[in-house]
Amino acid sequence: MNQPRSSARPGRASEPETAPGGARTPRRVDIAIVGGGLVGASLACALAPLIERAGLSVAVIEAAPLLEGTDAPFQPSFDARASAIAQGSADHFADMGLWQAMAEHAAPIRRIHISERGRFGATRLSGEELGVAALGHVIPNGWMGRVLHRRLAELPIAWHCPARVEEIVPVANGHALTLSDGKRLGVGLTVLADGGRSGLKERLGIESDRHPYDQVALIASVELSRPHGGEAWERFTAEGPIALLPLSGQAMELVWTHPLGAEQRRMALGDGDFLAELQRAFGDRAGRFRRVGSRHAYPLSLVTARETTRPGLAVLGNAAHALHPVAGQGFNLALRGVMDLVTAMQAGRERGEAPGSAGVLADFEARRHADRRNVIRFSDGLVRLFGIDSALLSRARAAGLVGLNLAGPLRRGLARRAMGLER
Ligand SMILES: Cc1cc2nc3c(=O)[nH]c(=O)nc-3n(C[C@H](O)[C@H](O)[C@H](O)COP(=O)(O)OP(=O)(O)OC[C@H]3O[C@@H](n4cnc5c(N)ncnc54)[C@H](O)[C@@H]3O)c2cc1C
């Protein structure tokens, strides 16, 4: 693997007090985004109109150094995974002027096939049936990262990277942040987009509900004997769901959920044995598995923060809600949160309110509440429904899948929600 370079661009990683555009970092900033991963970087890009036209000062602090000029994964959020992006999210990227670039490596999902191994039930959703060209798109996380960071380099933001926020203390007009390089920032609105793993939330006394699923997602790219033709597969097996997502070109992204611990043996298998086991578990419906890339494992839990706003503070993305990837909703939900926060700030600005004001944050929370609750319930419900191995439930699931195939309007309603076109 290539070694990280910490000074990927002049004026960026090596000189954290200087923005890519050359502006000096203010000691006091209107907004500080903690974490420049998928969610934090998306927020910074979505704030562009407020930064460029309204003069908001924004700092992004990212712990992991950037890697550039290489295909290696260059930071935790932009790793070897690919994400299923709902049409609604593609629309949001289009609003930010980024969809054209994202689409260079996006594969459209034209059909989704959902089935249960060993059972008759199956349901199919197609874009044609819903009158849309694609049900969604699959984009490598690494590519999304490159597009987002390229845009950030054009904006007059203060980019602190690599630097960690080590301390966060509430003060009269927001928060005081201390960075790992010793710098301090006074911030009106701090957005925690740190993925929930840095302990900052806990230091602020924000509690989270944690439900480990005792499952691990094993991900890899695979090649099959047949062209995928834009078809995505979700196959529920006794061990856990297996998802196959189309990638641009011939490959597909495999997300294979295992009971905790069971993934270790499969991580260690030679490629041939791994492919043979995958074939047995998935069946032949999508073709013969021919090749597999490097494998990565992600332990899965449902983690939800009990508070997502406080005076001068908003919590976004995985820091607010880490979901099971079975329904591919985590980032899509987070991106709607990003857009709602920006909308609330814009509305607040018209009322003369600062981004971290009580009015803006109450508006944001009101916009988010129902969507967040519904998506968390939907994803968690799916994991539990397909995770329980009972003959009765299995028949009910099969009947449900068949029924769903027959019940056009219900299926179309579900699909519209999954595509992020309805809340
Ligand atoms: C296997 C798997 C498959 C998935 N597939 C999909 C999918 O198909 N569709 C979908 O919508 N979602 C999917 N998701 C969910 C999606 O990946 C997450 O929602 C998304 O990565 C969350 O991004 P984030 O920026 O909130 O957090 P992260 O990706 O964790 O990024 C946090 C960033 O903050 C930085 N950071 C941490 N602490 C600090 C600190 N103290 N100071 C400064 N920086 C800090 C980190 O370096 C990192 O860059 C999947 C998840 C998994 C596990």
In short:
By secondary structure, the chain is of the alpha+beta class.
**What would you call the quaternary organization?**
single chain
The share of residues in helices is 25-40%
Low-confidence stretches: 1-26, 401-407
**Major β-sheet annotation:** 9 strands, mixed
Mean pLDDT: 84
Shape verdict: globular
CATH class value of the largest domain: Alpha Beta
- Count the DSSP helices: 13
Distance N to C terminus: 41 Å
**CATH architecture annotation of the largest domain:** 3-Layer(bba) Sandwich
Number of domains: 2
Structural class computed from helices and strand pairing: alpha+beta
Question: Ligands in the structure?
Answer: flavin-adenine dinucleotide
CATH topology of the largest domain: FAD/NAD(P)-binding domain
Tally the beta strands.
20
Rg on CA atoms, Å: 22 Å
Mind telling me the CATH superfamily name of the largest domain? FAD/NAD(P)-binding domain
Percent strand = 25-35%
